[in-house]
Amino acid sequence: MAAIRGEVSWFCCGTAWGPCGTAGGGACGTCKSGNYQHAWPNTSDACWAITHPDTCGLSMSRRGCGFRHYTTNLCNGARVGTTIADCGPQTDLFCGERTCCGSACGSNRIIDLTPAAFSAIGSLSVGLRPCSVDTV
């Protein structure tokens, strides 16, 4: 998979952790806010039917539960490895959304990290960062 550039956000799942209350276990049933995990828009046909990244002009590989991606925050170069535990973000709701820090920009939400994973690359209070996602 070639690196995909876009936006990274964060979401809550599983048992209470940090700013999150208790939430469901995600599409894979294993999601926990305190683990290094993420949601991916193309985990299944059902997920794709909800997230529609193609509406934003994105082609994203089908990856199932447990697959590992690496997300790099383009603002500070910090990188984290996480595994798929849910379906999301709903990319089509954010087509054209753009987040920048200096000259580093990303458009369209392509990955949601758990709070623990997002905290490893940036501040939860920021919420969105331009990013690059790859598999190596």
Structure description:
- The protein is mainly beta and 136 residues long.
- 10% of the residues lie in helices and 33% in strands.
- The chain is built from two helices and eight strands; from the N terminus they run E-E-H-E-E-E-E-E-H-E.
- The strands form two sheets. It has a six-stranded mixed beta barrel. Strands 5-6 form a two-stranded antiparallel sheet.
- Strand 5 and strand 6 (104-107) form a beta hairpin.
- The chain is globular and about 35 Å long.
- The mean pLDDT is 96.
Structural class estimated from helices and strands: mainly beta
As an assembly, this protein is single chain
Report the C-alpha radius of gyration, rounded.
Answer: 13 Å
**What form results from the Cα inertia axes?**
globular
* Share of residues in helices: 10-25%
Topology pattern, helix = H, strand = E: EEHEEEEEHE
The averaged pLDDT comes out at: 96
Strand portion:
25-35%
Low-confidence stretches: none
Number of helices: 2
